Amino acid sequence: MAEIKKNDEFVIEIMDLGADGEGIGKLENGYTVFVKDALIGDVAKIKIIKTKKNYGYGRLMSLVQASPFRVEAPCPVARACGGCQIMHLDYAEQLKYKENKLRNLLERVGKVKDYEMAPVIGMKEPYYYRNKAQFPVGRNKDGMIVTGFYAGRTHSIIDTTHCFIQHPLNETLVALVRNWMESNGVEPYDESTGRGLVRHILTRVGKRTGEVMVCLVVNGKDIPAREALIGALTKVEGMTSISLNVNREKTNVILGPTVKTLWGKDYITDYIGDICYQISPLSFYQVNPEQTQVLYSKALEFAGLKAGDVVWDLYCGIGTISLFLAQKAARVYGVEIVPQAIEDAKKNAELNHMDNVEFFVGKAEEVLPRKYAEDGVYADVIVVDPPRKGCDAALLECMVEMKPERIVYVSCDPATLARDVHYLEEHGYKVRRVQGVDMFPHSIHCEVICLLDHVK
Ligand code: SAH
């Protein structure tokens, strides 16, 4: 087999997309090449730019035959921006791609067989769906203040005023903050020196309530010309909460640990279905409210609750899924690591007059085993909704020891889902149903919900 070298040129067919939305194809000799901007179905002329032993990277030189699924992305910066990776792929194909990826991981990594899987549920209008934005603030080469999104895999900011997946109100909010900075000589934060004040503009808009939150992430305790900022932002209809988040660390982590309310409430409220939620700046809340309703309704359906059932909802955030389940269950216990989220969760239970829920702060992998060992707690159904890294091994162990009748696994990363269901299948559970829900159109990410039951 001839050695593949830098600058070699080939024509290849793109068969798959990688984790960052890059096209993946194989040369005739089986050598795998990753090609940025190439799509499944493209036949592309590429030039090798970097080689490793078993794979390499190629630059897309030209399309010999464009994929039949290529579309014109409405966003002019879609290619450069790191936010959307596959906006140039027809939406129906995006959904098929997500379904295939899910199926492959479950079957190859999870070794799952004989399960029911419906097509990924997409959005009718897959634009302007996000209720939360975090815009980095900086300066460009010419010294102008810029706000927008990071270019893929970098921290250089693409100055964007109009984003096709964000709530349209963001355009106004960001312009007002920028204007306040320019008029009052407020410095954006500079990542290289650690100097400057404003790092990010965090916004949230309640889909149903129209309530608006603006939280400035700052490298300092306070801001100058505070009244000017408040004066400008409070003219926006729906403005409910204006706050500062203090982050003085030299870090990539966006939010610091403390929030100070400058004006209005410490939170906004929104609804999913009939349930009302308070959301504060530090709490996790699903970013796509329309699809969240679909997801939580599936969670409720998969949980198959009967009168008298006891449920544990692990990684519960502000108690979103917990309260959804509490509509049917006798009792729901939620566990979550962020204290502010648990405060929100408790208030949310009160707000919805639900007294059959209880929340605990702590790591799920510590709280549940402790409660099980000390108090012998019990579950008919366990729901987990972990971050991308999946469930901790100690938690999975405890779950199988507790032997709930059903486990509902909500996941934002099918790879760790596959790993964890493999463990569960080796320890007495069987995957019955899998449903993808597209919470993040135009990105390569997909939310999945999976029902396992205990095999007697
Ligand atoms: N179920 C919620 C939140 C899911 S996101 C919803 O649908 O809104 C995952 C949550 O897990 C986040 O709130 C995060 O703060 C929390 N988390 C992360 N690691 C955790 C751990 N080890 N134990 C408990 N919660 C954790």
Give the gist of this structure.
The protein is of the alpha/beta class and 456 residues long. The protein has 9 helices and 22 strands.
Question: What would your notes on this structure say?
Answer:
The longest helix has 18 residues, at 91-108. This protein has helices spanning 91-108, 169-183, 226-233, 289-303, 320-326, 339-351, 364-375, 393-402, 414-426, and strands spanning 9-17, 23-26, 32-35, 43-51, 55-65, 116-121, 132-139, 145-150, 157-159, 198-205, 212-218, 239-246, 258-264, 268-272, 275-279, 310-314, 331-336, 357-361, 381-384, 406-411, 429-437, 447-454. The strands form four sheets. An eight-stranded mixed beta sheet has the order 6-21-22-20-19-16-17-18, with helices on both faces. Strands 9-8-7-10-11-12-13 form a seven-stranded mixed beta sheet, covered by helices on one side. The N and C termini lie far apart (53 Å). It is of the alpha/beta class and 456 residues long. The model has no long low-confidence stretch (mean pLDDT 95). Helix 1 (91-108) packs parallel to helix 9. Strand 17 (331-336), helix 6 (339-351) and strand 18 form a beta-alpha-beta unit. It has nine helices and 22 strands. Residues 284-286, 315-317, 320-321, 335-338, 341, 363-365, 385, 387 line the site of S-adenosyl-L-homocysteine (SAH).
